[in-house]
Amino acid sequence: MSLFKRLGNSLTLRFSFFYGLIGLIIIVFLLGFIYIQVIGALHAQQFRQISTLSNRVVHVYENQGRYAVILYLDNEIKSLYPDLWLLVDEDNKKIIGNIDSFPDMMVSSDYVSDIVISVSGRALEVKLKSVQLGSDTLLIGKSLKDINEFKYLMVRASFIAIILGGLFIWLSAYWFRVDLDSSVSVIRKTAQQIRSEKLKMRIPVEDVDDELNLLIKELNLMLDYLERSLAGVRYVSDTITHNIRTPITRITSYLHPLRSDPALPESSRLKVEQALAEIKSLVQLFDKLVQISELEMGVYRQSLHAVDMSQLVDDLSTLYGPYAEDTGLHLTVTTSPSVMVYGDKDLLASVLSNLLENACKYAKQHIQLQLSIEDDQAMIRIEDDGIGVEDSSLKQLGTHFYRDQRATDFPGTGLGLASVLAIVQYHQGECSFYHAPQGGLGVKILLPLS
Tens of pLDDT along 141-173? Predict the structure, then answer.
């Protein structure tokens, strides 16, 4: 089972296995073809030899008679490597020969192959042909012992060849995998370093223009283009931030003195307060959009450190616990000790704050916050018993400005979960939304452990 799992997970093993299997099948077919041709040729040769012997005996019979045939057969039987002979009369009684008795099968056939008979008291697989010499019948045969031994040798040699071929294929597959893995691992490590914001990293290129190095060169060119593009995005982001913040700051500086001007009517002061609140909301929205954009583009400029998520959850639960109680909610917190992740503490705190604020906004009575370790990852789960979301909305949660129909009566911009999703992905984690057992929304976050 583990072999099939490894085959499914390794491209090099799949290629090597299937192409090796094809090669092994071709070897088996070639060996089978050679076996059939060689054995067929040996049988044909034996048949020609038997025919030659039969023609020779017939010639002796026709020219010298029955007695000459008996003398000829006697000399043949006494030779060092005799063939198989049996001369019988019209009643199938033996006259001379080294075959013990006339086989019943030969009564109705002139030629029989692969028949077992008794020769000088030994069972032997033979090929026989009968020839009529007047009223007598002559059986001429060849033993199949040599052919059978050759068959055994060919089968054994083929079996050894298949084993050696399989071993060669396995060694070739192993070498191919090691060689390809060594090259691919360099690409993978470089990609991991680039993902960790080391944008200047490039994949090492060898002085060989093979397919892999040509691919690496193209990837390096693509990385150069991406680095320039990200630098451009960062420049545009900085420019937009400066050009928008400057007039907003100027407007705010104009409005603040008006708010404290005693000559200003109360109605006008209220409008100034509303304008300042709207401006503050606009700045927060703009900051969140810039942050999400930088996170999604991978150009966020804060350094990452080891973060104690257990301490962070305790701090935030201490902060939001009284707030939840004031609004009639019960916040249940379950944490595992010393859950460490590698990331930005402020961003991770922002994730928890966003989710807790959402839960406090929509929950009816209960909110559950859980931190634990699951499959060597830090797992954060937040559930509430609030209004929940439609089934069709689960896949769209985290989209910019998207809000479920049930949430339109509550204040919000539709960027909170988008920010959560961007921060989690920036930390190479996973975020999923589901229907909580209590009836509200459930959020599950997985982050790599430090």
Answer: 898 888 888 889 988 988 888 888 888 878 877
CB atoms within 10 A of CB 13: 17
Q: What is the mean pLDDT of residues 273-277?
A: 80
Residue count of the chain = 450
Unique residue bearing structure tokens 């988008």: 418
To the nearest 10°, report the CA torsion of 199, 201, 205, 210.
-40
Both structure tokens of 166: 């399989």
- Predicted confidence at residue 354, as pLDDT, reads 84
Contact 387, 362 (CB under 8 A): yes
Instruction: Tell me what the pLDDT averaged over the chain comes to.
Output: 81
Domains of the chain: total: 3
What does pTM read for this prediction? 0.47
Same domain, 268 and 284: yes
Nearest to 139 by CA among 175, 176, 177, 101: 101
The Cα-based distances of 253 to 166, 250, 258 in angstroms read 82, 5, 9
Show the domain range for 82.
13-149
* Residue 197: both structure tokens together: 């914001």
Is 98 contained in some domain? yes
Domain assignment of residue 202, yes or no = no
User: What is the Cα–Cα distance from 149 to 22, expressed in whole angstroms?
Assistant: 30
The token duo for 279 is: 């401006």
Do residues 112 and 222 share a domain? no
**Lowest mean pLDDT, pick from 123-137, 141-155, 224-238, 280-294:** 280-294
Distance CA 169, CA 191 (A): 32
Long-range contacts of 192-201 (CB under 8 A, 24+ apart): 194/223, 195/298, 195/428, 196/304, 197/298, 199/223, 199/226, 199/227, 199/230, 200/227
The pLDDT confidence band at residue 37, using thresholds 50, 70 and 90, is very high
Does some domain include residue 186?
no
Spacing of C-alpha 42 from chain mean position? 50
**pLDDT value of residue 301:** 57
Same domain as 427, residue 327:
yes
The span from the CA of 148 to the CA of 142, in Å, is 12
CB-based burial label for 160 (10 Å; 0-12, 13-18, 19+): exposed
CATH of the domain at 438: 3.30.565.10
